[in-house]
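Revision sheet: structure tokens.
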Amino acid sequence: MLRRLHLNAEDQGLVLLQAEYRPVPDSEGKLVRYQILLPAKGTYPEIRRFLSQASRELPGLAIDGINFQRQQIGDAVLEAQIKLTLFLSTQS
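Predicted:
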């Protein structure tokens, strides 16, 4: 699933920088949550398309937050910090 997330970003033209993944087990043991921090560079439409495609293809994906920054006001490329949670079942 994480590979698919990276492929989706690549498909949309985003440049992913060093991502952070952290599994967080559920207290009842039925789910594993992966908290994901994806630093990315791309245009606003590329980032929106990536999030839309990833949400469609990964039903257990939740968007927790996004921070945007650009170096100069006229720059088309944004630096984004995308915070996601991927919920996976431990049940087969």
